[in-house]
Structures are given as structure tokens and as C-alpha cells.
UniProtKB/TrEMBL annotation:
Residues at which substrate binds: 417
Keyword presence, Nucleotidyltransferase: no
Broad class of where this protein is predominantly found: membrane
Top EC group: transferase
Name by which UniProt lists this protein: LTA synthase family protein
Residues of the Sulfatase N-terminal domain: 250-541
Domain of life: Bacteria
Species of origin: Bacillus salipaludis
Record-annotated membrane-spanning stretches: 15-33, 48-68, 75-97, 129-146, 158-175
PANTHER family: LIPOTEICHOIC ACID SYNTHASE (PTHR47371), PHOSPHOGLYCEROL TRANSFERASE I (PTHR47371:SF3)
Length: 655
């Protein structure tokens, strides 16, 4: 009898409810880790850490309910729901970006709100209700078995807190053992989640963001001197054979949405080329085509690529520069060329607030921004994020022709965007058959983009612009994330995607067409950061006085490597992935790993220098010779009725 009574009392205590809540939360989180995230678990210690890392968060947060005598269960359920929501948001985000949500990403969500809807829907499934089952079970338990349970005392939270901290320190200690400097060298969010868990990651992220915003406040003009010295030591002098060869010409940049280099010359099983136009351009001998060129974007995707190309600075480790650092001082290409008589404009079939472009373009010095408001956004003309590439280029022509020459322009395509679905009437190209609908679709949308580009080139030839314009085409970032590696192995005809193949999949094509200049296939390694000095040198603008991190791809002294924003590295001899060095040709680990440690130092310094410029807003302390600092307030994009460079007007500020 007594035993049964004890059991009954035990069952009905809040502590039991709490323990059940933590255990369910733990199981759910661990299941999510296994099902949703590819964290690269290498050894038993990592397996163990992954299994225990949700415990401290569960104890700490759900335990907060114990502080209230009256509403213990209610608070625990609410906290459980909030944590479940955070986990689920990370899951949906990861399904697309292969990455975790950070504070700046949340800021972005505000800016991009409403337009991400379609992508998000395609990433969710009814089965996802599983990630909320623990919350549902707790609600049922609270209303039934534990209905009458009442709290005994509040002291229990102190014990729980002590327990949570101990578990966390134990967890951190083991993690640091496996990965020294885990917290300081946080280039890769996967590592933090793998070792410390998705929830602790968010806490660390919040702390880190508070730290970065204080960096700007604490920076002073002396900070730029270190960067200036670094820059001087790494300046690559132009190649006299190309310097000024495009002087006075117009410039057209085309951002090829999600377009990866493996597509060039790729043939479908029936022998059909996917991108015949881009293939012919790669081999026409009159265009520079770079076949070892890498994207270096982070969470800011398209906008990060834009940032790299026009500033020759690296984007941020977290969030988009376009969103978080749009108030900084820049010395970007549109501003530089603007002071040399160029008119600058962007053409994009999406609304101007996306990626905070309308604010950032002012800081970059763009005279005009032809956004969705200038296009016929009828239902048959739009898909995904905006205008389909064919009507987009077609409608852009009259606006382009209306610009005062010489012009510096950027076209941002959209059709080849995840999930790469096409309207039936827009394609008769066969989809792939690789057992993954996203990968299968990719071939159709890339083919469509290729046709649109051909049409654009034909239009430029027809109106005579082609012969006086430098045209730069670049893939902005990968389109098929690691989540599709199984199908990608089939696409590439390899048994599996190894770390070196995966690094190679980050290649995007770069083309530079200069009228009257012989081009050809270029094998040197480089990345998006290198394009600005290459272009400015072609236009006859020396870059010596600019704070930039790229190296002219056509220079004889071009450095032959590229780094990725997560700290990985590629060169003809070495591929570094997550701190391990591989032979790029065989994919095997290189013997004597420690011999390559200097690569790590080289890339860390380079990223730190660039990050200092961006995070501390250092360009406000530096003006290159011959450059006049621009005032973003002088640029406004008022839509089709009043879009022009304006005298000082009130700014709205998007943040
Ligand atoms: C949206 C377009 C796509 O305007 O640039 O952005 P992405 O999702 O590729 O960054
Ligand atoms: Mn993009």
C-alpha cells in the first residue's frame, strides 16, 4: 500500500513532469540531428557529444518552469514549444542552405519577408509535425495524469541549474579536446552545432553579434594602418598586355543565378548539351573563360557575390553584408567609375528591398536601380523570386539603351533558382533522371537561362553595344547543396562525393569578353574577390590605392588560390576541407598534414583583415588617392516615375 502511495506521489510531482519533458526534448533533438543535419561525425567522441549536447539546454531552459510555483507546467510547455520552434526553423533553413540560422539571418527575414514563402513551403512536409510531438505529449500529460500535480519548492531549480552547468562544462571540455579553439575559430557553424548543440549555438550566436556591433564603436583610424600594410604587401601589379585594353568601354555584369561550373560542357545521357550557348562562349577563343574559379559567398548568397565582385572584400561569416553593413562606407566599383564619367545601373526582376539592395546600392554608388517596378510582372512573366530570364532580358534592352554611355551595369538573373521548377510552356528540355527532383529540375532551368543569355547577346549584337562593351558573366554561388550529393554522384558518374569533389562543386564559371582582345580558356585558380582588380585593370584604372583583397586574374603574379568563406581552401596542389589537407587530383589525404599548416595562417589572416574592414567600418577612415567619398544620400531609387540621382533627400534607412 505504502509503495503504491509513494509511486502515486512521485508520478504527480512537477519534477517527474520536468524529467519527462527533458527526456522527450532530448530524444526529439537527437532524432532531428540524425535525420536532418549532416554534421560530419568523424569519431566516437563526436558521436557521444552529439548525443549529450541537448541535455544542458533542456535542463537549463525547461527547468525555468520550476521557478514558478503556480504555472510550472504551463511555463515548461511554452519553453518546450519555443525550443521546438527554434529547432524546426533551423531544420527548414538547413534543408535549403545547409546552414543554421543566425541573428543577422533573422534580420534578413524581416527584409525579405513574404518573398521567401514559396521556397519555404517546398521545404516543409506534414510529417514535420514530429518535431512538435513532445510539446503535444506534454500538453496531454498536463491535462490528464499531471493535472493536479503541484510544486513542492522552488529550490529544485538551483539543483537543476547546477546540474545543467556541470553537464555543459563537461560537454565543452570534451569538445575543446577534440577541436581546440572551438569557440574562437568559429568559421563553420556545423562544428558548433555538432559539438555544443543547436540551442547552445543560438546563445553563442547572440553573444557574438553583440560583440560585433560593439566592434565598430570601438574602432579607430589607427586600425586601418595594419590593413593598409597588409594590402600593400599583397598588391598584384597589372599585366601590361591587358592594362587599359578596355579603356572607356561599357561594362555589363551578368549574375548567373545558382549556376555551377560542372554544367559547362555537361551532356545529358542522350548526348544533349544543357548550356550550348555558354559552352560555345567558353571555347570561342575571344572570351576569357576561367575554369578554376570559385564562389566565396556566405549566408548572403546572391548579394554576397555582388559584394565580392564590386568591393573585392569578403562577405561576412554570418548574415549578409547587404543587410547588416549597409550603413558602412565603401569605395565600390560603381562609385569609382562614376567619378570617371560612367553611368551605373542595376537591372533585377525582383523588388528593390530584397537583400536590402535599395539601401546597399546607395552605399555602393549606383545611379539607377531598375527593379521589379520597371518590369511587366504579369503572372506568366514571373516564377520564384521574380521575372523569368527571357522576358527580363527582353524588357531590359530599352532601359539599357537609354543609358548614357559609357555605362557600368549589372544584370541579376533569377530563373535558375531553387527549387528550379519551370512552367511547362517554358521548357521542352528533358529533366534529369537522377532520383532527386531538385537536381532533375536544375538541368531544365539552366537550359532556359542559357537560351535567355543567347537572346540577350543577340540583342546586344543587333543594337551595336556588343562591340563596345566588356561583358562579365559569373555564377553567383552553388545551386545544389550537399543535401543533393547522392544524386550529384550520379550526375558526375562517381561512386560518392568526396571532400575534394565537394570543394570542386563550389566552382562557378567566370567569363570576361573584351571586344578586340583575344581570350581563351584560363586555368588559374581564383575567386569572386579577384574580379574587381581584373576588371579595373582592363579599364585602365590602377587599384594600388584601394583597400581590396583580390588579385588580378590576368596578372603574371596572380596568386593561384582561392579561399572559401568557411575557411576552406583550394589551389592546384592542395585542397583544404575542415582543417584537413587533400590531394586535389586523387582526393586522398596528403601525407604529413602539419606541413600545410601555414595555409591556415594565410587564410585566417586574409579573412581577419577583410572582416576588420567590414565589421569595424574601417573605410570611413581611409580615402584612396583620386577618389571622392560618396554620400549615399545623393542616391535614391524612386521607381519608374522619378528614378535618378537626386540632390540630398531624406533617407528612410531599412534596418
Ligand atoms: C533575389 C535573388 C535570389 O532577388 O537575388 O537570391 P538568392 O536566394 O540566390 O540569394
Ligand atoms: Mn543567388
Amino acid at each position: 500500500m505504502e509503495k503504491v502511495g509513494l509511486l502515486k506521489r512521485f508520478e504527480k510531482s512537477h519534477i517527474t513532469f520536468f524529467v519527462i519533458a527533458v527526456v522527450l526534448f532530448w530524444i526529439k533533438t537527437y532524432a532531428a540531428y540524425q535525420i536532418e543535419f549532416k554534421l560530419g561525425i568523424d569519431n566516437n567522441l563526436q558521436k557521444f557529444l552529439l548525443a549529450i549536447n541537448p541535455i544542458s539546454s533542456g535542463l537549463f531552459f525547461i527547468g525555468l518552469g520550476l521557478l514558478s510555483k503556480k504555472h510550472t507546467k504551463k511555463i515548461m510547455i511554452i519553453i518546450n514549444f519555443v525550443l521546438s520552434f527554434l529547432l524546426y526553423a533551423n531544420i527548414v533553413y538547413y534543408r535549403f542552405f545547409n546552414d543554421f540560422i543566425t541573428v543577422p539571418v533573422i534580420m534578413q527575414a524581416k527584409t525579405n519577408a513574404g518573398q521567401l514563402g514559396d521556397s519555404a513551403n517546398s521545404l516543409m512536409s506534414p510529417l514535420d509535425i514530429f518535431y512538435f510531438t513532445d510539446t503535444l505529449i506534454l500538453i496531454v500529460l498536463a491535462l490528464t495524469i499531471f493535472k493536479k500535480a503541484s510544486a513542492k519548492n522552488r529550490k529544485s531549480y538551483k539543483i537543476v541549474l547546477l546540474f545543467a552547468v556541470t553537464v555543459f562544462l563537461f560537454n565543452l571540455g570534451l569538445a575543446e579536446k577534440d577541436r581546440p579553439q572551438l569557440l574562437t575559430r568559429s568559421f563553420d557553424r556545423n562544428y558548433l552545432v555538432k559539438y555544443l548543440g543547436a540551442y547552445n549555438f543560438t546563445i553563442l550566436d547572440v553573444i557574438q553579434n553583440i560583440k560585433t556591433s560593439s566592434q565598430r564603436a570601438l574602432a579607430s583610424s589607427s586600425d586601418i594602418t595594419t590593413v593598409e600594410n597588409y594590402r600593400k604587401a599583397h598588391y598584384t601589379a597589372p599585366n601590361p598586355a591587358y592594362f587599359g585594353k578596355a579603356k572607356g568601354m561599357n561594362v555589363i555584369y551578368v549574375s548567373l543565378e545558382s549556376f555551377q561550373n560542372f554544367m559547362i560542357d555537361y551532356k545529358m545521357p542522350n548526348g544533349q548539351e544543357v548550356t550550348p550557348f555558354l559552352n560555345s562562349l567558353a571555347h570561342d577563343g575571344n572570351t576569357f573563360y576561367f575554369d578554376n574559379f570559385y564562389h566565396q559567398t556566405g549566408q548572403g548568397k546572391t548579394s554576397d557575390a555582388e559584394f565580392l565582385m564590386e568591393n573585392s572584400l569578403y562577405p561576412l561569416n554570418q548574415g549578409a553584408v547587404f543587410i547588416n553593413k549597409a550603413q558602412n562606407t565603401y569605395q565600390a566599383t560603381p562609385a569609382i567609375l562614376g567619378q570617371k564619367g560612367y553611368t551605373s545601373a542595376v537591372f533585377h526582376g525582383n523588388y528593390k528591398t530584397f537583400w536590402n539592395r535599395n539601401v546597399m546600392y546607395r552605399a555602393l554608388g549606383y545611379d539607377q536601380f531598375f527593379d521589379a517596378e520597371y518590369y511587366n510582372m504579369s503572372p506568366e512573366n514571373i516564377k520564384n523570386y521574380g521575372m523569368k530570364d527571357k522576358p527580363y532580358f527582353q524588357e531590359s534592352m530599352s532601359m539599357l539603351e537609354g543609358l548614357k554611355q559609357p555605362f557600368y551595369t549589372k544584370f541579376i538573373t533569377l530563373s535558375n533558382h531553387f527549387p528550379f521548377e519551370m512552367d511547362k510552356q517554358d521548357t521542352n528540355f528533358p529533366a534529369g533522371d537522377f532520383g532527386d527532383s531538385v537536381v532533375n529540375n536544375y538541368f531544365q532551368s539552366a537550359h532556359y537561362m542559357d537560351e535567355a543569355l543567347k537572346q540577350f547577346f543577340d540583342a546586344l549584337k543587333a543594337d551595336g553595344l556588343y562591340d563596345k562593351t566588356v561583358i562579365v558573366l559569373y555564377g553567383d554561388h552553388y545551386g545544389l547543396s550537399e543535401n543533393h550529393n547522392k544524386a550529384m554522384a550520379k550526375v558526375l558518374g562517381v561512386p560518392k562525393i568526396t571532400p575534394t569533389i565537394n570543394a570542386k562543386l563550389q566552382e562557378v564559371p567566370l567569363y570576361i569578353h573584351v571586344p578586340g582582345v583575344k581570350g581563351g580558356v584560363q586555368h588559374q585558380f581564383g575567386g569572386e574577390v579577384d574580379v574587381r582588380p581584373t576588371l579595373l585593370h582592363l579599364l585602365g584604372v590602377d587599384t594600388k590605392d584601394y583597400i581590396e583583397f583580390g588579385s588580378d586574374l590576368l596578372s603574371k603574379d596572380h596568386r593561384n588560390w582561392a579561399l572559401f568563406r568557411n575557411g576552406d581552401y583550394v589551389s592546384p596542389q592542395v585542397t583544404e576541407v575542415s582543417g584537413k589537407f587533400y590531394n586535389p587530383d586523387t582526393g586522398e589525404l596528403l601525407p604529413n598534414q602539419s606541413a600545410y599548416k601555414s595555409i591556415n595562417d594565410k587564410i585566417s589572416t586574409e579573412l581577419q583583415m577583410s572582416d576588420a574592414v567590414v565589421n569595424k567600418d574601417l573605410l570611413r577612415f581611409y580615402t584612396p588617392k583620386g577618389f571622392k567619398p560618396i554620400d549615399p544620400n545623393e542616391y535614391q531609387y524612386l521607381g519608374p516615375k522619378g528614378n535618378t540621382k537626386q540632390p540630398k533627400v531624406q533617407t528612410t534607412g531599412a534596418q
